[in-house]
Amino acid sequence: MEDAQALLAATAHVAEEKVVEARKRLTAAIEKGKETWNNAREKAAAGAKAADQVIRDYPYQSIGVALGVGALIGFLLSRRN
Q1: What is the pTM of this model?
Q2: Nearby residues of 14 by Cβ (< 8 Å), 6 or more positions away
């Protein structure tokens, strides 16, 4: 994104039609990328909070599930070798 913003700054003085159109598309893409990044970050934070709450509500069950998943992964990995 920094490179794209540097490109926009470097071409600010160019007034050719194709460059102006490319700058508009690039600016729109940067804004869409920022929006997508913010949405993903918000969803990740919400998921982490939800997982934290479930673990706090059911600590022993969470330990059991983690142990079971770890054992299953260990079993599957040991069979590959």
Answers
A1: 0.58
A2: 20
